[in-house]
Amino acid sequence: MSRSGPPVHRGAFGVEQAHRLLWRAGFGARPGQAERLAEMGLDRAVRSLTRPASTRLTGPAPHDHDGHPLAPRDAWGHDHCWWLDRMVRTEAPLVERMTLVWHDWFATSKSGGPTQTLVLRQNALLRRHALGSFEDLAVDITRDPAMLLWLNGVDNSRWAPNENYARELQELFCLGAGRGYGEGDVRELARALTGFRCDWGDAGATNFRFDAKSHDPGVKRIYGRRRRYGWQDGVRRVLDNPEHPSFVVAKLWSAFVPTPPPAATARALERMYVRGGRRVRPLVEAILRHPHLYDDGRRMAKPPVVQAAGMLRAVGRYVDMTDWAWLCDEAGQLLFAPPNVAGWDDTRWLDTATFRARWKMASYICDPAALKTDADKAAVPTTPAALVDAALAFWGAPPLSATTRAGLERYAAGALATAAQKWEREQWPVLVANALRMLIAMSPDLLTS
Amino acid sequence: MAHDPRACCTEHGRAARAGAGLPAIEAGMPDPAGTGLSRRSLLVRSAGLALSVYGAGRLAGVPAFEEGIAQAAAGPDGSVLLTVFLDGGADGLSVLAPVSDADYRKLRPNLALDAGAGPAFAEDERLMWHPSAAPLAQLHGEGKLTVLPAVGYDHPDQSHFTSRHFWEVGALDPTLRTGWMGRLLDRIGTPDNPLQGLSLGSQLGPALAAGANPVAAVDKAEDVGFWTPGTCGVVGDGVVDGFAAVGRDHLGSGDVAVAQAARAAAFTGAVSTALAPLGADGKPTFTPQAAYPSGDFAGRLAGFAAMLAAGLPIRCATVSAPGAYDTHADQTENLGKNLRSASDALLAFQRDLEARGLADRVLTLVWSEFGRRAAENGSGTDHGAAGIGLLMGSRVSGRMIGEFPGLDRLDDEGNLRATADFRGLYGSLAGDWFGVDPAAVLPGASGIGRPVILR
C-alpha cells in the first residue's frame, strides 16, 4: 500500500475478528467458517469476500411451510423470503450484502407502485453491479422500471417535467442534501432526464422505454455549464460534481463502520475512487481492511434481515417457511419495502417495539431445535458455565463479552436453584439450556456485531 | 407453528409450579397477598405495594427501571394525553359535512351527504356530523368533545410523509428528529421510566421520539410475555428478568450500538414486567368498564384504560385508528366504515375512563396529517390542507377552536384554509395540561395563539 493509501488493520486477526468481518461483509458465519477465515489472515480473508471464487447457492431450495416452492413475483412476502434465501445459501455473501447496501441506497419500495416482478428485476440489477462501477450502477438504475415508477421518471416529459428523480439523485443518491447543487440544478437536471415512458394496461405498467419525442432536447444549465444534456450525460454530470466522491465514500463507509472515517482515510478513499474510475470493489476492500472495522468500541446493530439470515446460517437451517416476511417486517425491515426513499433508519433498529419482534425471530429458530426434557437430559450439562457454553455452541460459538457471560450464568444459577425435587433437578438444566439459547441470541453481543 | 408455552412441562411439573414459591425478596417482608404470585407480579401488582417494597430503598439489585416505574407511579397522578392518528389524511368535510354550505353539493356532487342524514352540529348550523360519527356527536352534546373544524398550518404540504412529520415533531421542520411529545417527556418525565411515553402498537410513534428520556411500544397490554421454546414454569418466567438484567449490565457501555441494544432489552423487560398483571398469552385479566366494539384499536384503548387504572405512570401515548383515510377512491364506503370503528371505540374508551374514575386525568387528541380537497375526484378525494381535529375528555372546554371557514373561500389549490394551527393546540396542551412552558417544547411557535382547551 502506498504512502497515501488508507491504513490497514495490523492487530490480531483471529476468530473474533473473522466473526466481525463475516457479519459486516455478509450474514455471519456458517459453522466453522470464522475459524477457516481466521486462518487465511486479513488480506486473503478480505479477498475471499470481495473476489469470491463462486457465487453459487448451496443447500436446499427455499420453500414455504408446506414444502411448496416460493412464488416471489406473486405472493406477499415470498419476494422477501426469496432474497433471504440467497443471503443464507450464497457462497458470495458480500455480493448479497452489497446488493442490500444498494437497495437501501437507491431505496425503492413496492408500496409506491412497482410490482414484485419489477422490484425483483431491480434486485438483479443491483446484484449485477454489487461490486462494480458506481457510474454504471447510477446510469442503469436511472432507467430501471421500478425506479422509473417509484420516483416518477415515467411522469417526467419535456412538456411536464417532474423533478422527483432529479432531486433524489442528487440529494440522496449522489451528492447529499444541499451539497454542490441548487434548486435551479434540480429543475435543469429534471429536463435532462425527460423522455422515459411506459404503457399502462391490465397488467399494470409495461413497455418501459426512452422515447426521444418526449425528451427535452434543449440546452440545460447544470452546475454552471450549458450543454444539450441527454439523460446519460445528465447522470454523469452529477457524478462529475466535486461533492460526489466524498458523498459516496462517507455513505459506503457508513454501511460497514458506525463512526465517520478519519479525514485522511476519507481523502485516501476519495482519491482511490476518482482515480480508479468509480469502481466500488477497491473501496470496499480498503474499508474491510481498515483498523476501525475491528475496533472494540465500534459495534453496529445487525439489520433485522441480516440477523435472520445469520441465525439461519449459524444453525445450518434454510428458508423452510415464509413467516420470515412478517417476522422481519415487525422487526422493521421488510425487503423491497423500505420506509421511504431515504432507506431504512439504522439508528432506530433496536427499541422496545423491535426487541420483541427480534425475540420472535429467534424463537422461530430455537423452537424446532429445542432440547427435550426426556430425550436430551443426559446430554445437557448441569453447571451454569457449561450450560452457557453449550448454548453458545448452538449459535456456532460466537464471541461473548464477560459482562454478558456473567449475566447469563447468574440467570442459569438462579433458575437451577429453584429446582427442589429430584425430577426438577434432572429437568431444569434442559429448560435452562433452551432459555440460554434465546438469551444469547438477544444479548447486546449478538444483536450487534 | 404451534406455540404451547407449557409444551415442555409434564403435568407433574405444572402441579409443582404453584407450590414452588419464590425466594423472598427481603427477609421479614410480608408475604404477598394471594398465592401463585411470581416475584415480578408482586412488584407491580399494585403501585402501592411496589412502592412499599421499593420505598425503603434497601434492596440490593433492585432492577433500576422497575424502581423507576414504581417511583413514578407513586407520585401524584399525572395528566395523560393520548393521540389518535387517522392515517392518510381524513376528510374533515365528511366527518363534519357542511350540508348547508351553498357550495357543498357543487363540489361534492357524488359524495355529498344528505342534510339530516346525521346528527346536527350545535355550534355551527351549516355542519352535520357524519352518521358514522354519531358517538362523537353524543360526546359533543355532553360537552366532552372540542372540535377543530379546520386545523392545519400555513403553506400546507400535501405529502403524507412531510405533513405527518410536521405534526409529529410539532414544527414545520423537515429535519427535526425529536417528537413534540418526546420533548415534553424530556421535561416532565424521568430517565428510568420507559412507560411514560407509550406507543400502543408494534411501532414506536415518532411523536414520542425523545431526546433523553426513554419511551416504549406495547402492541397489546395482555400480550407482553416472551415465549421461550422449550422452557416453562419458573425457568421460563425468569427469561424476562434474564435479558433485562443483561441489558442493564451493559447500559453504561461506551459503544453506541451496545448501549442501544442494552436499553432496548432493559426497557422491554421493565415494560413487560410492569404489564404482566394485565394478562398473559393474549388473554386479558383486566375487565373493561365499558362495552368496546371488537378490533385491535378498541382492544388497545381498553388495555390502555386498564394500564392507567393499574396506576402505571403513563403520561403520553400514541395509537393509530383502524383503516386508511387516504380515500382517493371508494371514499363513501371506506370512510364510513373506518369512522364508525374509531368513533365507537373512542366513546367506549371515554365511558371506561369515566367508570374507572380516570376521566379527569386523560385527554385524547384525534388528528390527521391533512384534510382533503374540497372538490371530489371520481369516487374519492385528493390530498387537501386543513382538516378536522378533535379533543376528547371530561375536562375539555367543549367549545369549538377556530371556525369552519366556508367553502367559498378555499385556497388557490381548492383546499380548506386553516382556522387553527396545530402548534397552538400543542402549546395549550403543553402549558395548560402538563404545566410545561410551551416555548421549551415547541420551537418557533411562540407567535402562534394558544386556544383555551380546558373548561
* Sheet with most strands of chain A: 2 strands, antiparallel
Looking at CATH, which topology of the domain at 80-218 and 279-441 in chain B would you report? Answer: Alkaline Phosphatase, subunit A
Shape of chain B: globular
The SSE string of chain B, one letter per element, is HHHHEHEHEHEHHEEHHEEHEHEEEEEHH
What characteristics describe this protein?
heterodimer, A: 449 residues, mainly alpha, two-stranded antiparallel sheet, two-stranded antiparallel ribbon, 21 helices, B: 455 residues, alpha/beta, Alkaline Phosphatase, subunit A, 13% strand, disordered N terminus
Word description of this protein:
The complex is a heterodimer of chains A (449) and B (455). Chain A has 449 residues and is mainly α. Chain A has a domain at 55-294. In chain A, 51% of the residues lie in helices and 4% in strands. Chain A is built from 21 helices and four strands. In chain A, a hairpin with a 2-residue loop joins strand 3 and strand 4 (225-227). In chain A, helix 2 (33-40) packs across helix 3, helix 16 packs antiparallel against helix 17 and helix 18 crosses helix 20. Chain A starts with 14 loop residues before the first helix and ends with a helix. By secondary structure, chain B is of the alpha/beta class. Chain B has a domain at 80-218 and 279-441: 3-Layer(aba) Sandwich (Alkaline Phosphatase, subunit A), CATH 3.40.720. Helices cover 36% and strands 13% of the residues of chain B. Chain B contains 15 helices and 14 strands. In chain B, a hairpin with a 2-residue loop joins strand 7 and strand 8. Residues 1-62 of chain B have low confidence and may be disordered. Chains A and B meet through helix 17, helix 19, helix 20 and helix 21 of A and helix 1, strand 6, helix 10 and helix 11 of B.
